[in-house]
Amino acid sequence: MVRSLLKCFVVCGISCIAFAQTAIPVYKPTPVSVPDGASYLTRDGEIQIVGNDGWEDMMMKFDQLFLETHPGFERKFHPVMKGSSVAIPALQSGVSAMAPMARAMWEDDRFAFNRLHGYDPVDIHIGYAAFGPREGRKSPPGIYVNAKNPIAGLTIEQVRQIFTEGAKGGSITRWSQLGVKGPWAKRAIHIYGLDEGSGGTLSFRSQFLEDQSLVRTYEALPKPADIGDAIAEDPYGIALMGFFDASKLPAVRPLPAAIAADTPFLLPTYENVASEHVAFPAYLHVYIDREPGKPVDPFVKEYIRMLLSEKGQAIIASQKDTDEGYVPLSPEKIGAGLQKLD
User: Fold this and answer.
1) How many Å apart are CA 213 and CA 197, to the nearest integer?
2) CA-to-CA distance for 192 and 190, rounded, in angstroms?
3) Which of 56, 81, 163, 165 is deepest in the core (most CB within 10 A)?
4) Domains in the chain with CATH codes
5) Bridge partners, residue 219, by sequence
6) How far is CA 136 from the centre of its chain?
7) Strand-pair partners of 256
8) Closest CA to 254 of 114, 145, 101, 97
9) CB-based contacts of 93: which residues, under 8 Å, 6+ apart?
10) CA distance 317 to 127
């Protein structure tokens, strides 16, 4: 009975935040200072933070909140929000206090950072990077099919079986293996996506496809728009897409996905993303430079504690109707981020 009720809440899109009544830990600001020798200070003594351009409005609000909650703090902030691609290099060189990003770090960035420092940057999730589908705005990375395709959805394991070599349970190469009837029952699955070496593809493989090699029939296309056009023209196609707006392509639809075989197929709507009932969560990341066995820089620690506080999460929630469509972190996940600071 309890299992059925819980499943009903999920299917109806009711956030588990409300269902479980999980509370964000109470944030008590701690006085902190930044020494003059900190590498991330500008010549004028301001704290430089380099990161994703979509964070610009949000970072200004974060910086203001920090000053309001730390009245004795004397430093000013110097945000340089030029894109996720510059965030890790700036952290690596020490000119940024942290690396705020709207995607996971790419492998070449991780390799370069590790080669210089001998360890990886610490990844702290503070929210989610997108939800959808939304008219005229991007949805999180996921799977897309032709709108005529009657398939209801796929599990993560089925996605692995379609897109990668050597997946557990064997390969899925034909629509009939997924129970699709009609013309699809006789046809092979045509697989599309961006180049295998692109950062987005590598990131999706690492996070959700167990880092397995893509199947030999995977057709790489130059741009997301090319993939969308291919699926719109191919009823038997399926595509792995990064952040993408399919609203201008009525012949293409995002495919609901399930975390496991006994869970429902869901789209990454706001409610489902906020409760993390989605197969492919896309996080807002803050990477920090922390050498193993050593404490986190006191200012960095305090700033991220603020990001994970109720007021910090409210700032993320205020981005719902912006072009970015950021979503606050599920309260159940906040403790994991705080633990990485200890």
Assistant:
1) 11
2) 7
3) 163
4) 2-130+282-339 (3.40.190.10), 142-267 (3.40.190.10)
5) 192
6) 19
7) none
8) 145
9) none
10) 9
Residue type, 272: N
How far apart CA 156 and CA 183 sit, in angstroms, is 25
Q: What is the separation of C-alpha 37 from the centre of its chain, rounded to a whole number of angstroms? A: 34
**Alpha carbons within 13 A on the beta-carbon side of 4:** 1
Contact of 226 with 220, CB cutoff 8 Å:
no
- Whole-angstrom distance, CA of residue 252 vs CA of residue 16: 30
State the Cα–Cα distance between residues 188 and 162, nearest whole angstrom: 11
Coil/strand/helix, residue 79: strand
Query: What are 111's two structure tokens?
Result: 């390799």
Starting at the earlier edge strand, list the strands of the sheet with 99-101. 99-101, 283-288, 122-128, 327-328
User: Global pTM?
Assistant: 0.89
Distance CA 177, CA 186 (A): 10
Q: State how far the Cα of 326 lies from the Cα of 211, in Å rounded to an integer.
A: 27
57 with 11: CB under 8 angstroms? no
Strand 252-254's sheet: what is its strand order? Answer: 219-220, 190-193, 237-241, 142-146, 252-254
Largest Cα–Cα separation, the chain? 70
pLDDT in tens, the chain (342 residues): 333 333 443 444 433 333 344 678 899 999 999 999 999 999 999 999 999 999 999 999 999 999 999 999 999 999 999 999 999 999 999 999 999 999 999 889 999 999 999 999 999 999 999 999 998 898 999 999 999 999 999 999 999 999 999 888 899 999 999 999 999 999 999 999 998 888 888 889 888 999 899 999 999 999 999 999 999 999 999 999 999 888 888 999 999 999 999 999 999 999 999 999 999 999 999 999 999 999 999 999 999 999 999 999 999 999 999 999 999 999 999 999 999 999
List of residues 6+ apart from 21 with CB closer than 8 A: none
Residue 97 exposure: Cα atoms within 13 Å on the Cβ side: 26
